[in-house]
Amino acid sequence: MTASATQIAADVRARRVSAAQVCRDALARIDAANPRLNAFLQVFHDRALEQARAIDARMARGEDPGPLAGVPVALKDNICLEWGRTTAGSRMLENYESPFSATAARRLIDAGAVIVGKTNLDEFGMGSSGENSAFGPTRNPHDESRVPGGSSSGSAAAVAAGLVPVALGSDTGGSIRQPAGWCGIVGVKPTYGRVSRYGLIAYASSLDQIGVLAGMVDDAALALSVIAGPDPLDATSARRELEEFTHDPSTPPPSLVIGVPRQARAASHHAAVTAALDSAINAYKVVGARIVDVDLPHTDHALAAYYLVAAAEASSNLARYDGIRYGRRSSPAREGEAGEVPESSRAEGGLLDLYCRSRSEGLGPEVQRRIMLGTYALSAGYYDAYYLTALRARRLVKTDFDAAWAAGCHALLLPTSPGPAFRLGERADPIAMYLEDVYTVGVNLAGLPAVALPGGRAGEAGSRLPVGLQLVGPAWQESSLLRAARLLEAANPVPRTATSAPASS
Ligand code: GLN
Fold first, then answer.
1. 123-153 pLDDT tens trace
2. 76 catalytic per annotation
3. What is the pairing mode between strands 186-189 and 450-458?
4. Would you say the CB of residue 143 lies under 6 angstroms from ligand 1?
5. Staple partner for 367: which of 85, 363, 383, 388, CB 3.0–4.6 Å?
């Protein structure tokens, strides 16, 4: 297991260790583990060492390289970086080289972080397991026959395996929190607008938010404080003052009211999920928090509304990948090679034929399914029945949360998923896969911040799979939410099992 980001930055800044050494260790761990895990799509061996040496040179000159000095960080591969490729896990962007870096990536680099590589993901962020990547699935470091969750599959696996202390992910409907839960780590989905989306490859723009995966709450808070804040390049980034995300651990926590939604206890849950919830409730009681019952009556509608809104926005956002303006262009059709292009389009020849071929070859089946569903829901005659109805449901989901805040809750405690990670290939039915997201999507529909953290373990010794919990807070309350998460992390420690990473040298 790697040292924490907080520790690495402190050691590098105190010159107890060089950034170059930290970087070489991280690269060695990645090289050893990645052939099994497939967590990284690219590793920047030379570039990362160059960055690390530059940090050391700044230290030697007496400069402070910043709060993440020498910390190795991985980026989900839908976050643009001006070197390497940014694939979004898709054949469509297999060779895409971004001319610019995402604001979040730029801020990490400016704070002294070393970008060691780009991590695997479900294509364009569409998936809950990591299996929808065009570049093969990522494996869960706790049990390599299982999925790590998705869509930030590689970022979660990389942190859980101890390859890097911190990675960036994106969360449109749970893609940071759900894999964090299944990999036994911490994941922070900030309030919509807290972190700039400039340079994040769009999936569903009213839901997408960049956030952090880390081994512990403090590291996630540290990274969040670096990437958060207004950005003139993203009109949806909020012009709000940043609060303190990294608290002095000696400050006593304020009196906390934690709401536990009735819906958090479904009979269909895995027993370990209920046990994790009970254990967290007890831990909170022991440290003096008040636990109250709340109701989120539109939880089931959230799932339907999410999959409608997300698909509608995706169909619009992904229209640009036509092989002409953006994305992989199919080579001209040869005689007898019409492939999957429908007869009607082939007859058109030329442009339409090229669009069809490029999109059929470049986009995977789940992405195609969402584009078709979204296009249908937005089309004349269906728009009111589907899209507008989904927007109304979205509003109701938000009022559920608002009622909990009005009743005095500082945060709500929920599972991240109904059970632990499943085996690769086990959820072939798309609907069964979507159902895994029942506890995460409402947060995105309402634009709220949430922190996922380890809740417990499922199974007997030998298959101790992580089970995750999440704390959801009112908009812009990341600071008190992280404090509540830190409190739970300390009061309800979940033993970390050995991961597949070799020990750090
Ligand atoms: N699993 C959800 C989906 O497939 C959420 C993905 C995400 O947050 N990017 O849409």
1. 999 999 999 999 999 999 999 999 999 999 9
2. yes
3. antiparallel
4. no
5. 363
